[in-house]
Structures are given as C-alpha cells and as structure tokens.
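name: query_chain
kind: protein
chains: 1
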Amino acid sequence: MSAAAIAAGTEVPIVERSPEAVDLFMFSAAAWLLHRIHYDLPFTTEHDGHPGLLIHGPLQGTYMIQSVQWWLGLDAQLRTITYRHSAPAYLGDRLECGGTVTEVNGDGFTAELWVRKSDGTITTSGIATFAWSAANGRT
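structure:
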C-alpha cells in the first residue's frame, strides 16, 4: 500500500505469529530479560504455577511494530510506542497482530495496535507513532 493511500481508519493487516521455545530463549538472551518463566518450563510450571512458558511482553510489542513495518516496509519508521499487557500469552498460542490507523499528518501517522490470541483475548495493546520516510514523498 502506498503511503498516500493511508488515512484514519485504515486497518493494519493482521500478521500471525507463533513463537517457538527457541524464539523465547533467544529473545530473553538478546534483550537480557532473564526471568525463567520465558525459557525454563519446569520452573515456570512447578515454581510459578503457569501452564507453560510465557511469551514476553516486549516481544509482543515488537510484533506490533513489525505488523506495521511488514505492511509498509521502510516507509514507516517507528517514532514512539507505548503499550500495556492485559493478559498472558503462552507458548503454543497463535497470536494475531494488527490495528487501526487513527491519525495521519504530513510527518507520519499514529496507529492503535494490538496482539490477540486466537480466542479473541487481547494480550497487549498500544499506540505507536511512525514517521514517513523521506523516500515516499510525504515529508
């Protein structure tokens, strides 16, 4: 989609994500998020009482950003993001990431983004602002 065709109300196409255990481990290591609930199944289930490994909140935040950037490519450069986690997501959950553009201006746009499980439960939601790249002619 061209940047010129984006307006308030435009839906961000849904991207499905299903991280695997190695993804959780690698994200933990790369981001220095060392809580064992993301990579140590016996600890997570026996000590903390969760039904499985938890998908990191910051990883879900990354998925929200990627849903926009995979849609628009380099035309969308992240400026800011705030997000909140409202429900856990566990290894094996299929996550859908999407949102809606809420405002467009000469500099870029704002979008309300979310991650939800296949049962419709929103696990993470937020607001992100993106700048148009100089190459797309909107600046």
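note: The longest strand covers residues 122-132.
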